[in-house]
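## retry 2 of 3
previous attempt timed out at serialization; input unchanged, resubmitting
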Amino acid sequence: MTYTLPDLPYDYTALEPHVSKQTLEFHHDKHHAAYVKKYNAAVEGTPMADKPIEEAIKATAGNPDQKGIFNNGAQAWNHTFYWQCMKPNGGGMPTGAIADKIKSDLGGYDKFVEAFKQAGGTQFGSGWAWLVLENGTLKVVKTLNADNPITSNQTPLLTMDVWEHAYYLDYQNQRPSYIDTFINKLINWDFVNQNLAKA
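## retry succeeded, writing output
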């Protein structure tokens, strides 16, 4: 079961000026593609080769002997999910079920923004900020490097990549500016609502 690099769900210029064509080309065509290629090579000839990538991620999490499968598999999955978390003319306050859920579980949109900014801004080094569902309740969490909430029985609804390669060409070392832009201009709340409905 070869894992295939998905196409971006929009054109390379669709997120400009917030995320440049150059960033998407490097991030998707180089970084993401490399994770996919290395993952497929790592699982070849192993019991993981016939499993869905989510199962391989869960099965290898925390196993130092299978770090190659986990790191590349989780990064491949994380990026595929991340592209769908953004859209042209996105961001701002959500509508629909996720808006109600954010209000009831997190205390409102402003509280979500505060928590999400903190998660992304305080992740030392590389990693991800997430909005997840855990036992029916929304939580904002952060993960280091390739780590993914599905290994902690959490359902990802939204993620933001805070590895430097996600923003450095456009924002240099200004991670907070990238985070602000992601929240205010890029979040695809339609996708988040779809994930919530499926959960």
